[in-house]
Write a structure and sequence with these properties.
By secondary structure, the protein is mainly alpha-helical. Helix content is 47%, strand content 11%. Among the domains are: 150 residues, Rossmann fold, CATH 3.40.50.620; 87 residues, Arc Repressor Mutant, subunit A (Orthogonal Bundle), CATH 1.10.10. Its EC number is 6.1.1.17.
Length: 466
C-alpha cells in the first residue's frame, strides 16, 4: 500500500506572498487535496535579520484569501534548529560528516590560486580524512562527505532525469562555526520529520536537490518525489518582477480580483488539462497532476486573468460574492457597506455580475444602489439628461405612480410612453439611466427600477426633472 501523499509549502517570511509562491502553494494544495493527502505549511524563518512577523502574517493572509487551507500547525524552521543540529552530529558520529578547520582566508586563497591556474574552484577540504588526534582547538564547521565518483540523478516529475557528476559536488557545510545549521540541512530534516512525500517547488531549487539528496542518502531516508516547476515570467518574457506591476497575492485582492478566478488562472499558469481554460475548484482538484506541468516558463497575462475572473464572478453564488466584495473593500481600504447597501447589493447581484471582470467594475455598475439622493450625475450622464426635456420626465412620473411594479408591466409602460412621445425607448434609456444612477453605464433601467422600488425611483426622477 502506498504512503498517503504529504506536500508542503515553505515560504521565507521576508515579504508578501509573491504570485509565484502563491502558484507553488496552489500546486501543492491541489496535489494533496486531490488525493486525500495532507498539505502542510512551514515558515522558513532561519534568516533572522530578514524574517519578520509582518511578512509571516502577510503570507498567511494571502493563503487565506486564496482559500488554501493547510493541515496541522504552522511549523517554524528556526524553532527546530536543535533537531537540525542533532542530525549533523549523528552524521559526524557515523563518519559521514567531518569537522573542517579551514579558515575563510585559506579557502579564499585556494580559490584565487585555482582561478589563476584555470582549475576548478570547488573546495576540497584537507580535513576530510584527517585523524581526530590532529584536530586543533579552533573553530570548525561540519561538512558532509559528498560522493566523489559516479553520478547523482535527480528523478524529477517535471524536468525528467537530471544527472550531475559527483565530482561537481562539494562537501557541503551542515553546521556553521557557531553551531547553527544551514538552510540545506534544515529543509531536508524538516521535510523528513514532516513526512513530506512530494516536494513541488520552483525550478530555481533544482540544483539544491542534488545536494539535499546527499543528506537523505547519508541518513538512509527515502528521497521524496521531486517536481521542480518553471518560474513565471512577465509578458516581456523576463522573470516576473516589480516592473511588471502588482506581485503580492494581497495586492490582487485589493485590486478586486475574485479568489476563485485567481486560483483558476494560477492553476493554468504552467499546467494544463487538455484545452480546458475555465474550471471549478472541484475539477482542478480532480484533474491536477504533475505530468500536466510544462517545462517552459509561463507568462503572466492580465487579460487572461481578467477573462477568467469575469467568468467566475458570473457563476458565483450571490451571498458568497457579497461577502467576498466586503472583504475586498476592507483589503483595499475602502469604506464598508452599510447593512442596507449590503442587502441591496445581494438582491441586485443577478443584474450586476454578468459582465464584470473585477469587483470595482461590479461596484461601478452597482453605483445606483450604493449612492443616495440627490444623485450627482457624472459628465456623460449629465449630457444624457440634458438631451431630454424636464417635461418628459415630469409626464412619466404620474404614470409610474399607478403602474404595477413588475418587469413586464414596467417594460410595456415605458415602451408605450416612448411611442406617445414619438420616439423609441432606446432614446429614453440614457436619460433614465442618468436620472436613476448618475451614470451612463448601468444595468437595465427596468432592473434598476425593480431594485430601487417605486418610491425611490419616483423620487430620483422628480429630482432629475428639477
Amino acid at each position: 500500500m502506498s504512503k498517503p501523499v504529504v506536500t508542503r509549502f515553505a515560504p521565507s517570511p521576508t515579504g508578501f506572498l509573491h504570485i509565484g509562491g502563491a502558484r507553488t502553494a496552489l500546486f501543492n494544495w491541489l496535489y494533496a487535496r486531490g488525493r486525500g493527502g495532507k498539505f502542510l505549511l512551514r515558515i522558513e524563518d532561519t534568516d533572522r535579520e530578514r524574517s519578520t512577523p509582518e511578512a509571516t502574517a502577510a503570507i498567511l493572509q494571502g493563503l487565506d484569501w486564496l482559500g488554501l487551507d493547510h493541515d496541522g500547525d504552522v511549523i517554524s524552521q528556526f524553532e527546530r534548529a536543535d533537531r537540525h543540529a542533532e542530525v549533523a552530529h549523528q552524521l559526524l558520529a557515523e563518519g559521514k560528516a567531518y569537522k573542517c578547520f579551514a579558515t575563510q582566508e585559506e579557502i579564499a586563497a585556494f580559490r584565487d590560486a585555482a582561478r589563476a591556474e584555470g582549475k576548478s574552484t570547488l573546495y576540497r577540504s584537507p580535513w576530510r580524512d584527517a585523524d581526530a588526534s590532529t584536530h586543533p582547538d579552533a573553530p570548525y564547521v561540519v561538512r558532509i562527505k559528498a560522493p566523489q565518483e559516479g553520478t547523482s540523478v535527480i528523478r524529477d516529475q517535471v524536468q525528467g532525469d537530471v544527472s550531475i557528476r559527483n565530482d561537481q559536488l562539494d562537501d557541503m557545510i551542515l553546521l556553521r562555526s557557531d553551531g547553527t545549521p544551514v538552510y540545506m540541512l534544515a529543509v531536508v530534516v524538516d521535510d523528513y520529520d514532516m513526512g513530506v512525500t512530494h516536494v513541488i517547488r520552483g525550478d530555481d531549487h533544482l540544483n539544491n536537490a542534488a545536494r539535499q539528496m546527499m543528506i537523505y542518502e547519508a541518513m538512509g531516508w527515502d528521497i521524496p518525489v521531486w517536481a521542480h516547476i518553471p518560474l513565471i515570467h512577465g509578458p516581456d518574457g523576463k522573470k516576473l518582477s516589480k516592473r511588471h506591476g502588482a506581485l503580492g497575492a494581497q495586492e490582487y485582492q485589493a485590486m478586486g480580483y475574485p479568489a476563485a478566478g485567481m486560483r483558476n488562472y494560477l492553476a493554468r499558469l504552467g499546467w494544463s488539462h487538455g484545452d480546458d481554460e475555465f474550471f471549478t475548484d472541484a475539477q482542478a482538484r480532480e484533474w491536477f497532476d504533475l505530468d500536466g506541468i510544462g517545462k517552459s516558463p509561463a507568462r503572466f497575462d492580465t487579460k487572461k486573468l481578467e477573462s477568467l475572473c469575469g467568468q467566475h464572478i458570473a457563476v458565483s453564488d450571490d451571498a458568497a460574492l457579497r461577502q467576498e466584495i466586503e472583504a475586498y473593500l476592507a483589503a483595499a481600504g475602502e469604506p464598508a457597506l452599510t447593512d442596507v447597501q449590503s442587502t441591496d447589493l445581494e438582491r441586485a447581484m443577478y443584474c450586476l455580475k454578468d459582465r464584470a471582470k473585477t469587483f470595482p467594475e461590479l461596484l461601478e455598475k452597482a453605483h445606483f444602489i450604493l449612492t443616495s439622493r440627490p444623485i450627482e450625475p457624472d459628465a456623460k450622464a449629465a449630457k444624457a439628461l440634458a438631451s431630454v426635456s424636464d417635461s418628459i420626465l415630469n409626464e412619466l412620473t404620474p404614470q409610474l405612480q399607478s403602474a404595477s411594479w413588475t418587469r413586464d408591466d414596467l417594460e410595456a409602460l415605458l415602451n408605450q410612453f416612448a411611442e406617445a412621445q414619438d420616439t423609441k425607448f432606446g432614446k429614453l434609456a440614457g436619460p433614465l439611466r442618468a436620472a436613476l444612477a448618475g451614470r451612463a453605464v448601468t444595468p437595465s433601467v427596468f432592473d434598476m427600477m425593480l431594485i430601487l422600488g417605486r418610491e425611490e425611483t419616483l423620487a430620483r426622477l422628480t429630482d432629475a426633472a428639477g
